[in-house]
Amino acid sequence: GGVGVGVTRPKRRLSRLITLALQNAFLTIIMHYSRISTAPSRTYSAATAVLLNELLKGAISVLIALKRIDATLSAPSSLSWSEKEDRREDPRPPSSFPSFIPTMLHPSRIRNLTKSVLSPDCYKLSVPAILYVIQNNLQYVAASNLDVATFQVTYQMKILTTAFFSVLMLRKRLSKGKWLSLILLAAGVGIVQIQSTAAPSHISPIVQTEGVQISKGNQLRSDIPQLNSERVMHPLRGFMAVTLACMTSGLAGVYFEFILKTQTGSGPAPDLWVRNTQLSFFSLVPAAVPILFARGPEGSSWLERVGGSFANFNGWAVGTVLTQTFGGLITAIVIRYSDNIMKGFATSLSIIISFLASVALFSYPITVAFVVGSSIVLLATYMYNAPSPPSSPTTRIQVAN
Ligand code: C5P
Fold it and tell me: Of 48, 89, 93, 101, which residue is most buried, by most CB within 10 angstroms?
């Protein structure tokens, strides 16, 4: 019992953080490529991608919540625990429920989930929901206007906005050592960025061989063969999108954590997947608005315009949506079982992962700035997670004895 829990938990936590880091690295690359590999006139709609992401995430959250919800929730409390367990074992009523439908979709589960989702405090989720929809749209603006490395590195500034909101809203108290490691982290990220702007093109070889316009600062690099002459990146627009996305990321993440971890009223706090269902539910309206009011060719019907929003969804676009959905689910789990600040460290490691991948796959040169910056990022991660001073000597004594 006890030993098993002690051993598996940190391992699980670590594997979740590594999964998130890998997902982040992959998302940055695939999103950028999916955006810049076609002419703007043939690029899929970011708003549609955001909506599809929310729909998919919502559907998965509902299924997981249904699987986890107690089918006996509304059973009279006079039932003994074992009676409840019996019902849980076989929630099929003797009569009408057809056996070919999974028990997960049993009416009593659906009823209980609906009740949990429509709880009086569900409206709270509208705040992070709207913020996340804005953020997810901004991410596409940034990925379309900045190269992979610059986007990834500048987006790490969300670590500082997250720490700021965690202190403000969750009353987290960070020791001087932890603040120092956060500042080190930001500095390390900045140094990695120096290397990214100094190095030659660092986009995937697919892009390099097919060619694309890559802008550095405000200078357009035209020495690289161009994929399509219509595609131009606007770095300033990209940077503004990233800055806003860092704000919404910090605020929405911490707000979600606040809702998950603070007890309101009596009774147990709702399951993470009920919260996720509520989050997706409130995301649907802001995510659907741009599609419902989409403009289209003159004289086209509403249905044609809505249908047009789904045009150009090629494999890359679908891959981007799937990667983002997976990321949303793992992000929710990390926020629930660790916190937003730890999430920030995981995603900063994704920079190192994607650079190492570039070295291995695309023979990208390793520079001194990269080695120094990454080492600082790793050191900061270690420092942030090192046990606080009073507890470490005790641990050592225990080990020594
Ligand atoms: O960049 P950041 O880590 O803040 O991005 C978080 C992502 O995770 C957003 O795309 C957001 O929609 C998603 N998310 C989610 N469910 C949660 C929390 C975040 O899908 N409960």
Answer: 48
